[in-house]
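[step 3/7] fold_predict: job queued, chain A
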Amino acid sequence: MTFELSEEHLAVQEAAREFAQKELKPGVIERDAAMTYPKEQVRMMAELGFMGMMADPAYGGGGMDTLSYVIAMEEISKVDNSCSVIMSVNNSLVCWGLETYGTDEQKQKYLPKLSSGEWIGSFCLSEPEAGSDATSQQTTAIDMGDHYLLNGTKNWITNGGTSSVHLVIAQTDREKGHKGINAFIVETSWPGVTIGAKEDKLGIRSSDTHTIMYNDVKVPKANRIGEDGFGFKFAMKTLEGGRIGIAAQALGIAAGSLDLSMQYARERETFGKPIAQHQAIAFKLAEMATEVEAARLLVYKAARLKDAGEDYGMASAMAKYYASEVAMKAATEAVQIHGGYGFVKEYHVERLFRDAKITQIYEGTTEIQKIVISRQILK
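[step 4/7] structure written:
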């Protein structure tokens, strides 16, 4: 295993870093406070190719590997996690899910617009009673012959207010349990699709998170993904890759917290010297740096396994679990190192602290990752 990045990977890293620092950092505090959707910033991400990095160039994508994607996610997540989660869902869940499991017709119709960022996609799995227990789908899709009739409610949907396309997981035959679940491509403009109010969240506040309601939405048979009953497997396989993206987001939060803490520790003086020279602070920074590097190696390993076509389910769960724990710890320590300044918005670590928490929850909670890992090691 090599630990060195190629010239191409370093170029992606530099481009993402420059974009994050120059285009995302100015105004990020104000967007967060006002819950303002970063429309212009998302447009620029699309122009730079960040919205469809792994998609085939035949469909307008970048044709890059997963490692390039997580490198870009880390740099953007150091600064603006609302933008990085928009990017993550569109790349990991929507574009990848469609390209991997969609028909040629579905890919030709939807992928060019999604991978170019002309359209934004959303992944609609969670419900009021179906979060970690994804088998308990209450949303139904009744087979009406030439179409399905979709009814139900989806919660906590990232890109819910701006997406043009939803990948919706729904129950078609309850007696079959998880084998009676299907996945559908639904367009926001179709009659019966209603977008609820934007959620007022603890963190990632400028990303748009909404409840979406479906009331007798007619979904053509051609918009079902895979064979009948494939929906649950589609959701689980897609989330395996999505976890790598969120692990990279968590890594970015941790790395960003470390960067800001080192900068502050060198500048802030107490008792006649920079606080970085006090052992209490130096040791905090040493622990943060070690844990960030360990998280990075786990994320890179999961990405490389995925790129190699090998089984990456446990690796992605480990990366997501550990990186999210490190993000929460590093952001907490960053606030502590900044002292009173860490408790105000001006110094950015306050926002990273709030953003870190969601990485332990979405795309599979910490507890779900432990279930995945334990089942693999004990089988």
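[step 5/7] annotate
The mean pLDDT is 97.
The two ends are 26 Å apart (CA to CA).
exit 0
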